[in-house]
Amino acid sequence: MALLTIKNLTVRFATSTGSFTAVDGIDVSVDKGEVLAIVGRSGSGKSVSMLAVMGLLPDTATITADEMSYDGQNLLTMSAKDRRKLIGREITMIFQEPIASLNPSFTAGYQIEEVLRFNAGLDRKSARAKALDLFKKVGLPDPEQKLKAYPHQMSGGQCQRVMIAMAIATDPRLIIADEPTTALDVTIQKQILDLLMELQERLDMALILITHDMGVVAETADRVQVQYKGRKMEEAKVLDLFENPKSNYTRALLSALPENATGDRLPTVADFISPDEAAQQAKVQQ
Question: May I ask which residue range the UniProt record assigns to the signal sequence (predicted)?
Answer without folding.
Answer: none
